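Homework help thread (please don't just give me the answer)

Our assignment gives two proteins as sequence + structure token strings and asks us to describe the second one. The first is just a warm-up. Here they are:
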Amino acid sequence: MIKGGNLPQIRAFLFKGLLLIGFSLLLGCQRAKDVDYLWQDYSQRLAHVIEQPYSPASFLPTQVTRPKVQESPSPTISILETLSLGHCPLGHLIADHNSTLGKVAPDSQQLIYQIRFIQLAPTCIDTLEEGELKTKLKQALEQKQANAMTYFHRVLTRDKSITRSLFIGYDSLVLDEMHAGRLELESAIGQLLTIKRHIKQRRWQQIDTTQIEPTLAQMAHQTLLQRYLRSLAYSRAQLTALNDYLQAHGASVVCRPGHANRKQEILQNVFHKYYLAQTQAYLSQLNQLHYRLSEPLIALFGDSGYQTFIEHHFGEQPGALPEQLKAQMRRHVEWWQAFRESCNIPPPKR
């Protein structure tokens, strides 16, 4: 039985509990500050003050397309010849590859087979007497060494774990969580780049084929790369459209001598609160990711079918998306500097 004297305390306790629940629900319902939210929020606030309609830029990102694969003929080793290699680990490798499962193996397993063949063949060849089989194995070894990079590039451009990472969808990076998953992504890229360098330098025995599948699985679990790509491309498109909008309607916000410049002061507050404090902070972290990822990714995908796509999104040449975005950022700040100087409005107090 509840005593009457305790009712006020119970009510106060319940009220505090309801407030905490309501506050938690409110936090849970707040929209994440991803690239769509930041540009929509900033542009709508500007348009509301300028009092001119604004239409966001249409967004059609460039997508990767799988290059066509040209199969290279390889010397065929018959079942009987494989049986005569039973004393070599290479014989078991060839037998497994010639099985039904081996013939439909994914590109990653095809690469592993090529590398393992190259690693095992020399020792096995040395055990054979001169003859047709030894000649075939030597020819196969030379061909696989020459085509190893082709098989590696095939993994880069056809394996789902990588093609999904480069697909620009609807998810983007969220402010204050920009670097989540970066270490895992850098580790996977580094592992793949090490394999590529060993192939290029023909250091076959240093390639750990047991790490290829786990590395690809690591790529499959990360989403940072595809979210970065969308954030970059979307920001460049929206900032370009917003700069064009400000350029077109600049005359409507020019300060007039002898008149109150309240609208202009509000505009500058919007710039400081929603561009400098949020959107520019977002773009700055985006640039940090570009700085860390660009060099290894360009090296990894160099000479592959995705080289052009990667250079467009990570390169520093004129026309590359990072350079386009930097140019629009400079253009945006220059517009605001000219606006503030023409109005002689002091920066808002922080």
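The one we have to describe:
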Amino acid sequence: MKLNYFYNNTRKIEELLKKIEVAKGILEYIPQLTHVENNLRRKSLLKSSVFSARIEGNKLTYDKVKHSNLNSKDLEKKEIQNILTALQWLYSKNSQKTLNKNLILNLHTKVMSGITKSGKFRNEFSGVFNSAGNVVYFAPPPNEVPNLILELINTTNKKHSSTPTKSAVFHFTFEKIHPFLDGNGRVGRLLSTFILKQKGYDFRGLISLEEYMDTNKQTYYDLLNIEKRDITQFVEFFLQGLVIQSEKVLEELKKTKYETEEDTLLPRRREILELIEDHKLVSFNFIKRRFLNVPNSTLHYDLKKLEDENFIKKIGETRGALYTSIN
């Protein structure tokens, strides 16, 4: 297999790159509200995890999991939790800083943990199948995978093209190499995020490119299955997603002029408040089901603090007491 994929620098690509640069510049100009961004990033990373899993056939939705306990034996929840764990690691201080083989294997280990064998390239032949079970693409032989991945890494690290187009070409090529038996799409999208993040084109983790890909899933599939070497259409699709998602988050940030008391809440308390706001009236047991790993005493303390700070109101004094939002 030869990695000689290319794209033409069309007028559309030039216009999309300009829009991305403008959006990036605006984000750097907008006053940074730390707590607001932390909350948006938390939601964005969860969205990316949900939509990345949905692209691969997971049926859960963001609304169903945003207040759900993902530490579960349920396979679909585990798929989302694994991607979220990998994303949180990418945005942590412990993350690797360089695109290399170890990064790829590390991400695969995190994404496929407890699902299938992980952290190793495939040692058997594989292909990509459509919904009817027919092979639409035969991946290169397993003995070629290590060298192809090394070539892709070296080419990507040496390229002087724009970061967004570099990320797009990497993603397409990675999926064609198909280095694993399972998890290629999930790992490929994580690696695209990593490449964007290196130069700030991930918009500080506030956008979910996976949401755009899932919304346009059939187009995404069709473009990934292109058999020719010219992948201009895929690059345009990828850049369009960056434009749409970045403009969406900029609109949200522009509407936020200052931090509220709610923005400064600790993450778990913020989530408890959102849970109560979404369901209007909830019991302690209902909240507990979302935070199974948190001691009851800690949850009671969180609720008391939210009550003391006039975010919520407790109705009743017995075990059957309910909680509702004041606003």
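TA reply:
I won't write it for you, but here's a hint about the kind of observation we're looking for: The two ends are 60 Å apart (CA to CA).
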